[in-house]
Amino acid sequence: TCTVHTTIRALERLNISSNRIASKEAGKALAEALAINSSLKELDVSRSSWIDNEGRWNESKGDGPGFAQELAIGISANGALKSLNMSENKMLTKEAGKALGDILKANSVLKELDVSSNYDYSAGSTDGAGFASGIADGVSTNGALEVLDISNNNIGLLASEGGWTMNENDAYCSPEGKWQGSNKPEGVEFKPLGVI
Q1: β-sheet bridge partners, residue 148
Q2: Which residues does residue 191 pair with via DSSP β-bridges, in sequence order?
Q3: What is the pTM of this model?
Q4: Which of 49, 115, 148, 188 is 20 to 30 A from 104 (CA-CA)?
Q5: Cα separation of 33 and 29, whole Å?
């Protein structure tokens, strides 16, 4: 169970990065605290995905997209947040992009948003194009945003129905997550990741 102390209303900067909290439950708890805090200007929840000691994503504990969707509710209600770092949380889905886009539509004070490095090579549900599209919808109506970092998300990544991926450098990765260099697998057709 996640509990966030909601009586600290004068807090202006909160860094809770690298704490393995990227779950829907934690996002909801943070959202509740953010909704009543009108003074928080900087929030860093980067590198909060559930990674085990071998560097593998633990889906049974983490939910990067759910974390983003829940947190978006509190951020939209906050009204004071100027800087948000949500990088490296394995949340590269259309739904998370839409939630972040909705933040940008509702928030007229957010100046910096970092959602870089959210691609997860081991997940089959990543959608860089959908993620970017959702954020772009929010950017188009937000007049305050000055800095947006969406780097290292393989937005232009190509994939096959069999699970192979190809990055912008024409390097191929097997369905098991092993890089094959520039040796294209025979008989494999690649399409933009969001199309498959």
Answers
A1: 113
A2: 159
A3: 0.72
A4: 49
A5: 7
How is residue 96 written in tokens?
A: 């998370």
Q: How many CA atoms lie within 13 A of 32 on its CB side?
A: 11
Burial class (CB in 10 A: 0-12, 13-18, 19+), 43: buried
The Cα–Cα gap between 176 and 167 comes to 16
Q: Both tokens of residue 163?
A: 């699970």
Residue that has been written with the tokens 């098991």 in this structure: 176
